[in-house]
Amino acid sequence: MSNIYKILKRSWNKGVLLLLLLTFCTTILFAQTAVIRGTVKDESGEPMVGAVVMQVGTKNAAPVTKDGTFELKNVTPGATLQVNFLGYKTAVTALKSGQTTVSFVLKSNTIGLKEVTVNTGLYKRPIGNFTGSAKTYTGAELKSVNPRNVIQALSVIDPSVRIAADNISGSDPNKLPNLQIRGANNLTLTTNTSAANPVSNGDIMASYLANPNQPLIIMDGFETTLQTLYDMDVNLIENITVLKDAAATVAYGSKAANGVIVVDTKQPVQGKLRASYGINANIELPDLTSYNLMDAASLLEAQRLSGVYNDPSNYFNDVAKQQWYNYRLAQVKSGVNTYWLSQPLQMGYGLTHSLQLSGGGSNLRYSFSLGYGNNEGVMKGSGRDRYSMGYNVSYSGKKIRVSNATSLAYVKGNNTPWGSFASYSKQLPFFRNNDEAGNPIKILEPNGSELGFGSQAPGGIFVNPEYNSTLNVKDYSTMLSLTNNSSIEWSLLDELKLTGSLGWSANTPQSEAFLPADHTSFADNIGLMGDLGSYQQTKGNNNVINGKVSLNYRLTFGKSTLLTAVGGQLQKTSSNGTTIKVLGIPNDYLGEIGLANGFSYSTLKPNTLSNLSKSVSNFASISYNFDNRYTAEVTANLSGSSQFGAHAGMTPFYAGGLSWNISNEKFFKPNDIIQSAKLRASIGTAGNQNISSDIQIYQYSLTNNYRLMLGSTTGSYANPDLQFQKTLKTNLGLSLGLLKGKINASLEVYQETTDNLILPLDIAPSTGFLSYRDNLGGTQNTGYEIGINANVIKDAKRNIFWTLGFNTGHYRNILTRLSPAIDAINAKNNATTDPNNPLNGRYQTNPLPRFVVGQSMSKIWAVPSLGIDPATGQEVFVKLDGSRTFVWDANDKRPIADATAKFKGSASSNFNYKNFVLNFNLMYQYGGYMYNQTLVDKVENVDLLHGNADMRVLTERWKQPGDHSSFKSLVANGLNGLQQTNATSRFVQKDNFIDLSSLTVGYNFPSTLKWVKASHLSAPKIMITQNNLVRLGTIKNERGTGYPFARSFSFGLSTNF
């Protein structure tokens, strides 16, 4: 029995062991055949069709289907799954025991995203199906260049985006930039603003009138103003796309000739409630390095040499002037040497707060933003305050996605009560600005009777602009804006989507300017006391309603991909405003418009303006891609607008593009030099409607009274046949990947020819009008853009990355056709620079524009000069026939040089070492020219009797026969500096420069730090940015004459919760 028991026991143990072995094997077998199902979507809930889900360490993979789902078979327990999709960060998750479902949410890779899709604002296209010229920049890229000025940052990193130089406004925080893409297609005289037009930056139509070359700005699919982009919080920007050629812009039809800037704001992100907070403190310092003014002793000596203090023709006047010289000399010897430039200036401070909340599930998502920013200018009392808030809510069902976004913004801009900076640069330094108690002196010098002299001071009465800062002066503007955008997206089929959206925006701009009677601007007023003091008030209302619908279809068959977008939109824009100017407010504490004595003599009544514009636009776009090698794209638009004549009707615009991805050809063999290459070409037309809405209709005015009865007169001559301006755009592009992907290079060559340019046409005076507007002109822009980006170091193991960037661009515009009426404008410009013209008073001394067929709009016209004659100290000019003369004649003017640079662009460096960041951007210009107005106004034509001057007045002007000098004599022909200098080639100088636009140093705090963990912060970061730190140039002129330029320093901290 015992033996049998032992045998059974051994058999049982073997059986159990065998059973366990079979169970284990079965478990493995079933584990190998386990199926994992799930979804893959992006942050906005869109299915990531084409993404691949794979088991790490194996070749086991499954694609994501059209509805965003996947099914991966034969997954082992505890496996790690990974999802890859071009343009998005890789998502990785480890499966838990028994887990059979998983959901992935892919986050966009901001570095690679701009290479994958292009958003035109009306539809999105994969880069493989897009043939146009476009560049996309992320909000992070823009913030690293300039954390407070989006437009300035964009102009630094994109060579086609240019801000016209404004040497008067400098760094005035309330001055909007003059923005252009690929140069100018319009003459500034095509605008038709009137004196009664209370132009507001919140009025879309008025903003285009102020700059007819301004690009169209689209934000989240709807048209917006330049001011909205200027005041926008950079933390709310996801990315900005610049559309340049016809293939990229033609869907906008009549609005796209100047290019399009498309702004995408951040959308709600799926997940638990998260918060992002950023704070940025900035300091602005005035830059006065371009000023080289005389001190008190030097100015007094210059006045003496110029004959201010002697009068050989009158003994008594000569004695009185000598008395004044001795008095001022005593002031200088007592130590009076006022540095007037510093009086109105300050160190400007600013603080910006930005808070965003976001969260939600797979269906309902939401976000909320709140922002505040103030920016003090470098002139005392100037600044700009911004307040903003908004929300975005979206709901995604199985077939329908609905969203609504609302934003509210308030902006207040304060202009300095200290007046123009030019009034300080002209002040005489031997005047005291304050009394013994430190209070500003209104009249800077005692009169002759007080000093016992026989006459008034040379130059008359001098007033102190600093005195105005003690008065209750008002000079500000405000604007309250409300925007609401709603959209609905319906997936009719997996490949077919219908989208509809409705946008509404309204803003109420207002400005007020009050100067009391004691203001120095009224110091020379000899009228009645009831006329002293002024108050001007402007109020407006602007509304825009935009509705649009589009249908997008995607079809993939074999190696082919077909994308189609069809849509249309209606827009109604209305604006109205009233300007009231009154006089007679004696006390600065009575600063109310209702306390004035009466209306201004120039207006006699309130000025009102009302504009209404309606437009319709329909588009269709088809893109076909075969085997990711060949792409053909065709887009057409049909537009109509009430801004043009009743006979204009609907106008078609079209564009076509081709691209060839050479890298995917079988014959192409990647090598160590060239890894990838792609060619693009496009041609098409776009329109421009940046004109007044009233030039195609008759207008009537009620300004004339007859025997106390109102009568009407015709104010403008109608042209019902006025047509759209059209610009034919051609573009060639080449993209290259070089040196095993270390260098990416691009080249764009383009030509833009504008026809039907709207210009004035002379008509018979018997009609009661001198001219009316018609399609009579044409321009042509030709240019190129080059971009190079190099990965110098890319070491992921040591976490070291260094990239260098370089871009450059050039364009040249010429006039191809002009109205005969332009000859009258050129003749008038000649007349206003003629010193013998009795209608001028003090004639202009700067080159005025001249418009000639075949010449550039940016040409500098002046009379050729051979320099200063060493024998006489007079300037020698060259006449049209080649002869020489000492007499300046406007008819001898000719094109001397072009203000447009041969090369203009930027260079950048981005260095990352572990958690440290060091970036900088340089802007440069070469081959451009500028007329140095400083040499005219502050050296040769300087009014030493009333103002200060450049030091070169004493050191570099001709003094005696034989002197070889760059400047004329201080005293010419026995006259005290009365011989003026007109537009001359002598002062046309090369304008080459290098500007350190931005320098950024940052640090990303590791999440492993104890204080980061304890505070529950995520990705805290600190950034220090410096803008406009150094400028090196070839021209020595005063910059920022009305408002100084500034150097800014920003200190930013951002984090997530």
Automatic annotation (TrEMBL):
Swiss-Prot/TrEMBL keywords: Cell outer membrane, Membrane, Transmembrane, Transmembrane beta strand, Transport
UniProt key word Electron transport: no
The organism's place on the tree of life at top rank: Bacteria
Endpoints of the signal sequence: none
Gene3D superfamilies, per database record: Carboxypeptidase-like, regulatory domain, TonB-dependent receptor, beta-barrel domain, TonB-dependent receptor, plug domain
One annotated Gene Ontology cellular component of this protein: cell outer membrane
Keyword tRNA processing attached: no
Coarse class of the protein's main subcellular location: membrane
Residue stretches making up the TonB-dependent receptor plug domain: 130-260
Locations listed in the record: Cell outer membrane
Topology in membrane: Multi-pass membrane protein
Pfam families for this protein: CarbopepD_reg_2, Plug
PROSITE patterns for the chain: TONB_DEPENDENT_REC_3
Family the entry assigns: Belongs to the TonB-dependent receptor family.
Descriptive protein name: TonB-linked outer membrane protein, SusC/RagA family
Native source organism of the sequence: Solitalea koreensis
